[in-house]
From TrEMBL:
Residues 156-169 have a biased composition (Low complexity). It comes from the Bacteria. Belongs to the peptidase S8 family. This is S8 family serine peptidase. Pfam families: P_proprotein, Peptidase_S8. PROSITE patterns: P_HOMO_B, SUBTILASE, SUBTILASE_ASP, SUBTILASE_HIS, SUBTILASE_SER. The active site is at D201, H241, S437. PANTHER family: NEUROENDOCRINE CONVERTASE 1 (PTHR42884:SF14), PROPROTEIN CONVERTASE SUBTILISIN/KEXIN-RELATED (PTHR42884). Keywords: Hydrolase, Protease, Serine protease. The lineage of its organism: Bacteria, Bacillati, Actinomycetota, Actinomycetes, Kitasatosporales. It comes from Streptomyces pactum.
Length: 623
């Protein structure tokens, strides 16, 4: 599933803003995000997913097999109702005997990846998995779906080719790029064309004016259904998500539209989403990772989770096989020099303290499951994968972003509220999305810049340097955030810093002060919570951070301000009266450079209505 920006963890229907607001769309399964689309200078509009209509006729040629890691059984048989997909796992090497057993026990071999000992099998037999588990040499067998394999798997239709709209938009320094100092990093390097980055996603519009200069068709592919389809255009977008991600990584610095973090590296599309459903099954991810390893991708971006389970639990026979198959594929890619970067998810969920899941399986009827931390989000929580949480404008935790101590590795801008991440969309268009799906490609782009400067870096080197060069972010006034300023559950090692990653230097954050005392907020009342600052020389910075954690049953009642020691009032936020969301957990950036730092600062909270009350739980200031 996509990382809720276009799809993923959220099943909400599309929603529209007011007549003054851009239209918005909440994605289904990607790492949920908010979407606003714009044609070059035209009115905002909602686009249909790019690959869900106008598909090529069924007579299109069959997909080619991978020359190195997979192949198909003879025509893989004809589709039949009840056909399910399975991972059959054996020792890496020659899988001939296991493939023969698949055929002998009522299955067909759809693909096989001998280097990692994984066979993708199809069967309509209800006893297939149990029978294969008893075969000599078979280590694990698991169904990858709770629904039938689509008939399209046997003769895939090509995605449509969207007509292109030339843009009149010119490049500007966007907030997300300046927040991670990408605009300053470009003075050092814009990336090397020898660095290949894989976008494992819904596909990429390779003809987009901002992507075509950097698109690598030779190494692009569709891995939908679990085997490589190398036909020209098979990699194109069947939604909009992958094209947006690709632009954040490597939109060209060509004077048009937007600039990616690494605007001169090469991007390859590895489409792992299936058309129609838009789901990302395990065999698709396995195909994508093996492809990445065999085709020299230095880094891949993964803004999705592996369907149909939001979390896979090792004590379940099917899910245990999914974990092992994808783990092996990721380890294989890394052994070939490829680093995987993944989005953390958009459910505001503590990945370090899992309890329940009510959204899985998402390809049939979800059930309520009790979880432990042994159950993992894949590929996000696999060993070696860099897990990225999202910040909003100003480097506070994005309201939707998942978190978790020792799970989150690093943070990056994902957008929040009115400030989304602006990037490319199919058909020459551009638009805003918010989600950890948008955060992850910022880190992917920074990793690509690092390798451009030093091509000898290994995946382990890149992981280490991403951590060391991130800008430390303290926990906001939110008790769910545990850890230190240097490393915590919201931001991991901190927010990625492109300038520092390529050899530049940035100013570290200053001292932090907090007030953890609860203060009640009554109806139609104003309260102030103080923090006394001392030991800070000179004036406050132009980027003073005020982290706020308020528990309230209707935040539309609230008006927040920061009061300086001399009484100057700095408005933080006047929530819309119609905002019925509970609570406030945000970090605000205030230009307080005219104020003496030392003294008593106050968080002022006004409640302007009746019926709903709350508490200032805690708040902090970081200089």
């Amino acid at each position: 599933m996509l990382c809720p920006s276009l799809a993923r963890r959220d099943g909400s229907p599309p929603t529209r803003g007011s007549s003054e607001d851009p239209l918005t769309l909440i994605s289904r399964r990607l790492r949920p995000a908010t979407l606003a689309l714009a044609a070059a200078g035209a009115a905002l509009t909602i686009l249909a997913p790019a690959g869900l209509a106008g598909a090529a006729p069924a007579s299109a040629s069959a997909p080619a097999s991978s020359s190195t890691t997979s192949s198909t059984a003879s025509a893989s048989g004809a589709w039949a109702a009840g056909t399910r997909a399975y991972l059959v796992i054996t020792a890496p090497g020659d899988t001939t005997s296991v493939r023969s057993a698949v055929t002998d026990n009522g299955g067909t071999v759809f693909a096989h990846y001998d280097a990692i000992g994984v066979v993708v099998a199809h069967s309509a037999s209800a006893s297939f998995a149990a029978t294969m588990r008893g075969v000599s040499g078979v280590q694990q067998v698991g169904a990858t779906r709770t629904s039938d394999v689509p008939a399209d798997a046997y003769n895939p239709a090509l995605p449509s080719t969207p007509s292109q709209t030339p843009t009149t938009l010119t490049e500007t320094n966007r907030w997300d790029m300046t927040q991670i100092n990408a605009d300053k990093a470009w003075a050092v390097t814009t990336g090397s064309a020898t660095v290949k980055v894989g976008v494992l996603d819904t596909g990429v519009d390779d003809r987009h004016q901002d992507l075509a200069p950097n698109f690598n068709a030779a190494d692009s592919v569709s891995c939908a259904y679990g085997r490589p389809d190398t036909r020209a255009g098979a990699w194109r977008d069947v939604d909009t998500h992958g094209t947006h991600v690709a632009g954040t990584i490597a939109a060209a610095k060509n004077g048009k539209g937007v600039i990616g973090v690494a605007p001169n590296v090469k991007i390859s599309s590895v489409r792992i989403a299936e058309p129609g459903s838009g789901l990302f099954f395990a065999e698709n991810t396995i195909c994508g990772f093996v492809w990445a390893g065999d085709h020299g991708f230095k880094v891949t971006n993964n803004s999705y989770y592996t369907d149909p389970w939001m979390f896979n639990c090792p004590d379940d026979l099917d899910q245990g096989a999914i974990i092992e198959g994808v783990r092996r594929a990721q380890a294989y890619a890394e052994s070939k020099g490829s680093l995987q970067v993944a989005a953390a998810g958009n459910s505001d969920y503590d990945l370090a303290n899992k309890t329940t899941d009510t959204s899985s399986p998402n390809d049939s009827t979800p059930v309520r499951r009790t979880l432990t931390n042994a159950c993992i989000d894949i590929p996000t929580e696999l060993p070696g994968v860099v897990t990225v949480s999202a910040t909003g404008k100003g480097s506070g935790k994005a309201s939707y972003s998942n978190f978790g101590t020792d799970v989150i590795d690093i943070a990056a801008p994902g957008g929040d509220g009115a400030s989304g991440v602006y990037s490319t969309l199919p058909g020459g268009k551009y638009g805003n999305l918010s989600g950890t799906s948008m955060a992850s490609p910022h880190v992917t782009g920074v990793a690509a810049l690092m390798v451009s400067v030093n091509p000898s870096l290994t995946p382990a080197d890149i992981r280490s340097r991403l951590a060391a060069q991130a800008r430390d972010l303290p926990c906001p006034a939110d008790r769910r955030c545990t850890g230190t300023t240097a490393k915590n559950g919201f931001f991991g090692e901190g927010e990625t810093d492109a300038l520092k990653a390529v050899g530049g230097a940035t100013q570290p954050p200053g001292k932090s002060f907090q007030n953890l005392d609860d203060m009640a907020i009554a109806d139609n009342a104003t309260v102030e919570s103080p923090i006394t600052v001392s030991g800070v020389s000179g004036n406050a910075p132009a980027t003073l951070k005020a982290g706020v954690d308020i528990k309230h049953t209707y935040r539309g009642d609230l008006v927040l301000s920061l009061v300086a020691p001399d009484g100057t009032v700095y408005p933080l936020e006047d929530f819309a009266d119609s905002d019925g969301t509970d609570n406030v957990a945000k970090t605000y950036t205030v230009d307080a450079s005219a104020e003496t730092a030392n003294g008593t600062w106050k968080l002022r909270v006004r409640d302007i209505a009746t019926r709903d009350t709350g508490t200032i739980d805690s708040w902090n200031l970081t200089f």
